[in-house]
Design goal:
The protein is of the alpha+beta class and 175 residues long. It has helices spanning 8-21, 44-48, 100-112, 149-167, and strands at residues 36-42, 54-60, 63-69, 74-75, 79-86, 92-98, 118-122, 125-128, 140-143. Helix content is 29%, strand content 29%. Strands 1, 2, 3, 4, 7 and 8 form a six-stranded antiparallel sheet that branches.
């Protein structure tokens, strides 16, 4: 794996975190208070070339820097539900329920990228990074630890807001 220059590594990681934490622009909608991104690992050679589509992320367990796609496979805008649960050692986990469209995208992405890592970022912070060993077929994804109660609450608020926007959207005239 390529080594980053010592002075550049923290700066590159900061820029990556900021880029991933920036919410997707949505006309007329308030900016989300919490961002959620599910991003796929890319090969180190693609990341090392400085491609604008990849960003480095430092993982804690094991301690390593990997490169991920800057464009997420799914985000907070794709959530239709979230359930909190008490994980081991007093940590909080969450079950993420994605829209049908996002479920199809995640299925395709995990089917084609087995053996790579899927990184879950909350506000640019990696909270879970499992190795993909099977396709994600249900549209439900378990994050076993690292989710703060306030993040769950904010994501639940955003889901309610997103669902109310869909149910109150003006009807399109027939053509």
């Amino acid at each position: 794996m390529p080594r980053l220059l010592p002075g550049i590594a923290p700066f590159a990681l900061l820029l990556a975190s900021l880029a991933l934490a920036l919410p997707a622009a949505r006309a007329g909608a308030p900016a989300p208070r919490v961002t959620l991104r599910l991003c796929l690992q890319v090969d180190a050679q693609s990341g090392a070339t400085g491609s604008k589509q990849t960003v480095p992320v430092r993982l804690a367990n094991p301690d390593q820097v990997i490169y991920i796609n800057a464009q997420p496979e799914a985000s907070e805008h794709d959530l239709v539900g979230i359930e909190a649960y008490n994980a081991v050692a007093g940590e909080n986990g969450a079950i993420l329920h994605f829209s049908r469209h996002a479920a199809i995208e995640l299925n395709n992405a995990t089917l084609q990228n087995q053996g790579r890592i899927l990184v879950v970022l909350l506000d640019g912070r990696p909270v879970y990074a499992p190795l993909i060993d099977a396709p994600l077929t249900s549209g439900d994804f378990v994050v076993p630890r690292g989710v703060l109660p306030v993040e769950i609450t904010e994501l639940q608020k955003m889901i309610k807001l997103n669902l109310s926007e869909v149910t109150h959207a003006p009807e399109q005239p027939n053509k």
